[in-house]
Structures are given as C-alpha cells and as structure tokens.
Amino acid sequence: MAGKKKEASLQASVTNQEQWEEMLATKGLTVVDVYQQWCGPCRAVVSLLRKIKNELGDDLLHFATAEADSIDALEKYRGKCEPTFLFFGGGELVAVLRGANAPLLQRMIVEELAKEKLVLEQGGERKAVNDEGLVDDEKREEEEAPQQSANEESIIVPASKSYTVAIIKPDAVAHGKANEIIMKIQDAGFEILAQEERMLTEVEARDFYQHKSAEACFEDLVQFMSSGPSHILVLSQVEGSANVVPAWREFIGPADTEEAWRENPECLRAQYGTQTLFNAVHGSEDSDQASRELAFFFPNFRTASVTEQDGEEERVERTLALIRPDVARENREEILAQIHKSGFTVALQKEVTLTEEQVRQFYFQHVEEDYFPALLRCMTSGPVLALALARMGAVHHWRNILGPSDVKKAKEESPECLRAQFAVEDEPINQLHGSASHEEAEREINFFFPKQQTLAVIKPDALEKHKEMILEEIHGRGFSVTRLKETVLSREMAEEFYKDHRDKPFFSQLVEFMSRGPCMMLVLTKENAVEEWRAMMGPTDPDQAMVTSPNSMRARFASNILHNSVHGSSNEQHAEEKICLIFGDICTDSELTVDGETDTSIPGESHNSTPCSPQTGETDDPEALH
Fold it and tell me: Which of 190, 313, 356, 430 could bond to 419 as cystine, CB 3.0-4.6 Å?
C-alpha cells in the first residue's frame, strides 16, 4: 500500500477539464502522461520519473497523468494507445514525446526544465510548439503506399537463406509507427521477403499463441493481438549470419520492456514498447517456430530446395486430415495436440455428419474395393472432424505421422504412428485420413470447405467514417471482393431488402435509415465466408458486441442497434437471394426450389458449391437487424 501512495503523490491524476485547467496554471514544468482509459497510463516509466525527481529535487518539476477520454482539451489524443508525454510550461505546450523511450524522456525532462527556469528567472521567451504528430488518419492513409498482400502470389527464396517471422504489433501499427520500424529493420541489414497488414481474429490469435496458453497473460495477449491490424513480415538473414532468428531477436530486445531499456536502449522494444504485453514487435523463438508461423501467415511461401524424398520443391502447403467418428468422439483433443506439436497450423476446421452419397463421392476411387462397406459404415456412424492443415511439405509430413493405412501393419511396423495409437479394437478401418498428393489435397479441402459467397453491406452510418478501415480488414482476413458498388437504396429497394422484417415494429425506421444515404454493397468470397463475415461483424446490438466480441466491427464502429455499421447474410440461401437482388446481372435464368420457395442461383455456383459437399445446415438468424 505504501508503494501505491508514493506513486500517486509522484504523478497528479487529472481526470476532467477543470483539473486539466488547474494543472496548466501550475508554475514550472509539468510532464503529462496522456493515456486512454482502456489501457491506462504508462506504468513502466514511473520508476524512472521517481528517480529523476529524487535526483533533481526541484520544486518546479511536476508530473501528471491525464485521461484523454474525459478531458475536452485532449480530444485529439483519444483512440490512441501509444505512450504520449506532453511538456507544459506556463500553460503552453513546449515539447512532445511519443513512445516510452527512457533515455530520451530523461534527457528531455532535464533540458525542458532548464529552459523553463530561464524563462522564470531571466524573463526569457518561452517557445510554444504544436504537436506535429497529430496527423489526420485520412492524410496518413494517403501518405502510406498500399501494400500488396503477400498471399496473392508464391514467394520463392533460395534454400541457403534462413528466415523468421516478424510482427509489428497493433500498438505500434495503430499510431503510424509501422513504416518507421520497417525502415529501421532494413537499415539494420535485414531483407524483407514478404509483408502484409492483417488483423487477427481472437480464434487466430489463440491458435498462433497456443504455445503460451498456460501462461497467466494468455487471455490479455489474445485480446491485445486481435485489437487492431498488425504488420506481418518474413525476414531473411543479415549479411554474414547463418541464422536470422538470433540476429532478429537481439535486434528487437527482451520481451520485458524495462529489461530492454536497461540492457539495450537502442533495441526496438525499448524504443517502441511500453510494457511486456505492449512491446511493439514479435519474433520467432527458434527456426522450428519460424517455420510454423510462416505456414500460418504465408501458405504460398516456399524454398527452392529439393527434398530428400521425391526431388520436388518443398513448400508451405495444405493437406486434408479427417478424424473419423469413433476417435473424434474420444480422442480429438489429444490428436489436435499432436498436430500442433508436429508443427502444423489448423487453417480450417469443421465437424460434419456425412451422408452415404457424400461418402461415395469423396471416396469415389474406393467404391469397388472390398473394404468400402466397412469404410462407408465408419464414415456415416457420427460426426467427422475435418481439418485443413498447413506447414512446409504438409502432405508428406502428415502421411508420415499417420503411418501405414493398414491398421495391422501400422501396429507392427510403426507402433508410434497415429493410426496405430488410435486404432479401434475390432475395427479394420484406420481412424485417420490424409491426402495422398498436393492435387488430391486441394480437391479434398474444396469438398469439405467449399468457397462461399456472402453479401456484406457497409451501412450509411459507417460508410463515411469507417469505409477504408472496414475494407482493409476485409482484405486482411483473406476475403476476395468479387463485386462492389456504392449506391443509395430507394425506399422500395430497402423494403424489399428487409422484407423478412416487414411485420416487425422497427421495420419503417430501418427502411428509412437504410435509404437516407449511400451504402456500399460487396460480394465476399472465401471458404466459410458466411460464418467468418458474421464473426467479424459481431452481435447485432453493439452493447452486446462490446461485451462478447469487443474487437468486432459493431463493437468498434456502431452507435446503436439500428445504426450498427454493417450487414451480413445469415446463411448461404439468404446470401444468394440478396446478391441477386442487389447485383441482378450476375443471376442466371435457372432457379432452385428451396422449401417450396423460388431461389435464384448465382452463375458458376450451384446452390451448394459441390453437389454433395457437406454443409453445416445453419438456420435463419434470429437477430433482427442483420
């Protein structure tokens, strides 16, 4: 308790406009740590400030913290989590420092205090400044050249090069420091092989950091890493270094920012980090982790090396894994743990109960085999867990881990393989499936995870303020925007669009809102597009979204349940209907009958992307305003 009292007396707490004005009237130099309520003041510098105060012992030096959310004068500093220190003398801003750079902060305090003393003692002229760092977001976006997504094409590097994955985290990206950090990375001699800006979902963040799941900070880490866009880079070795991983980790410094300031004040984490969680940058811990992280972010990355097995280029690729019903019920978590331990990333996952027709189509090459009746019985006995696994040489490595397809042979020749470990007694069929080739893997993945289309709408309330950020996040999540148009809906079109809600009390208000100004209509294409876009949007009510999905679009951009920023189709059928309504020219003359109602189809797509591909069977969304 004594420590807390000492800290409170060191920095005056300013939480409203009246206290702010009183602070500005204080004689001498006042150093203000401006912070957001959600992330709090920069506690990492408190010990430094106390040290400076004790060493200088000057009554003209004051420290304060100021909550930007509740002080009108600090409105422009809201929505920013980068540490910002404002220096005031005589009520005027005389200096600004961004980032918790301890050596620079100490030097500026000493220098600005000396200047303020000259003004007070000798009547010198006080030089006020403007905070040049407060650049409008729109201007910053214009200045930053858009980066082409590295996932759009294959990235090939010589096998002689080592590589690592680097992440410029949301705290640094959100405040325009990404380009500055990238320049320092290049100046240090690192070669950037690939880069993209990407916003992780909570699920992706959990998967990426699953090796830290036992640590106390895991939940905070997941929330932080999914709170905004990150810059993902693949770095190659510096000149004269056989392994880039240790060179990069030395360059970024210790994870603990206080340790970074003490041991290496020039490292990236000392310059840009504020605490262990908000430490600005990430680096792979070793070469194995670098390989796993590479598969996670850049599935088209490959080296020009020749494998020992078949002479083909080894590359990051995907393969299909199936955990059959008996084992999926009893051992799924154990098998998933072994998958992660073997360096695979689970890119896609679905649990589905297959029909006999679907099993026959999937295993069409085996229908005439003697064992097929047993295989059919096994595959239709309950839910199958389907996984798209990614890593370098995924097809070959997964088949190696599985072992022989014959269960008896697997037990005799490779008792440690998965098929031997998870064999079911008196069951001749092995319990795990793996694609036999890269081509077969793509066909099988497409069977279980067919490409979907969904309709997304950026509503009038969000179009003007948040359009660019929403579009950026859509691309960052891997969606293809196959159709797009900005339009003002007529009242008649809005009524037709929301006809399912015609009997609801809010219908008239909803129609009026949707037809009052321009909105943007998009057709998004991706595996599992409907569900993923709905997850990105969050719950219909933004109040609920802020509680259950604080990083969703509605939690961040919506003002109320009516003005909730974005719309998304609730299922594939609704997506087809609304796409045809908005983009009528892409519909064909063919029609499908669904539950007795007529539904127009999309050219090039049947009602299900693969006639017998497994679907999740989602029902209509009960939430009114999607």
Answer: 430
CA-wise closest residue to 449 among 335, 318, 595, 586: 318
Candidate list 231, 282, 396, 397, residue with the active-site label? 282
Assign 575 to helix, strand or coil.
Answer: helix
Domains of the chain: 2-134 (3.40.30.10), 146-306 (3.30.70.141), 313-448 (3.30.70.141), 451-600 (3.30.70.141)
Active-site residue, 567 included? yes
Tell me the CA end-to-end span of the chain in Å, nearest whole number. Answer: 50
As annotated, the binding site for ATP includes 459, 506, 534, 540, 554, 564
Q: Is 433 a catalytic residue?
A: yes
Q: How far is CA 273 from the centre of its chain?
A: 19
Residue with tokens 């200088």: 56
Handedness of CA 178, 184, 188, 193 (dihedral sign): positive
The pLDDT tens digits for 426-483 are: 888 999 999 988 889 989 998 998 888 999 999 998 988 898 889 888 887 778 888 8
The residue from 231, 397, 433, 626 that is catalytic is 433
**Which residues are annotated as part of the binding site?**
459, 506, 534, 540, 554, 564
Q: Which of 175, 396, 466, 567 is catalytic?
A: 567
